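Per-record layout

source: Chrysochromulina tobinii
name: Ureidoglycolate hydrolase
length: 257
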Amino acid sequence: MGILVGALRGGARRASLARCRRYAFTFSPENFRDPNLPSGLRVIDVPAAKATDETLAEVGACLIHGPDERTVANKNFEIVRWPQPGWRPLDPQTGDEAGTTEGHFDVHWQADYFFGHNLAIATENNYYLDGIGCPPEQARRELPSAGDGTHILLWMSDYHPDGAQLFWPCTEPPAPFTVCLGAARFGDDIRPTDMRAFTVPAGKGVYLAPGTWHNGIYLRPEHCPARFLTRQGKVHARVSCSWADEFGVLLRVPLGE
C-alpha cells in the first residue's frame, strides 16, 4: 500500500511539473487587462452557496461586519513570515513587519467585460479583466451586452502567500456581491473543480486568509460601478493561475441578486 501511495503521489507531482512546463501564461499588466481569450473554451459551473461563517470556513474565509474588524493593530489580520530561503530560521519577530496597505478597489462592467482596479497597491499591475459575461467569441465591448448579467465567466484566479486580504463595500446603498474562492490547502495544484462561489449579503464584507485562492469581487451590472475598501499585505506577492490557458476552461459563477 505504501508503495502504491508513493507512486500515486509521485505521479501527481510529475503531472503538476508537466503542467508547469507546458503552460506559461504571463500575468503582465498588458495580459491581465486583455488576455486574448480563445473561442471554444469549455464552461464549468462553480457550486454556489450563501456566504456565512460556516460555508466560508472550508475555503479559509469569513464574513466581516465592519472595515476595522480585522487589522494588524488588533492582531487578527494575518501576515505570513517570509521568506526563508535556506535552512536557517528567521529571527523572532522578523519577516512579517511590513504590515498592510489599503485603498479603494473599484469594479465596473464595460458591456460584457468586468474590470477591477486595485488602488491599494503601488504598481502598474493593478488593473484587471476579472471576468466576462458570456463566452469570449460572443462578448462585446460596447452596449448592448450579449450576456444577461446573471453570471460571470472567470478566466483566472490568484492567491497571496504573504498575507490576508479583506473587501468592504463603500458604495451606498451596499449591494450583495459574489466571491469565488479555493482553499489554501490546494496550493499551486489548484484545479477548476476546487473552486466555490459565495454570495455575500448586502452590508457585509469578507476576509480571506493568506493563500486562499480568489479573484476580485463581482456584482450584477445594475449594481455597478461600485467601490470597495481593500486591505492586504503590503508586500503584495501574487501567484496566479489562468484557467483558460492551463485547463482550457472558464468558470461560470452565478451573481447574487
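summary: Residues 113 and 236 are 25 Å apart (CA to CA). The first helix runs from residue 2 to 22.
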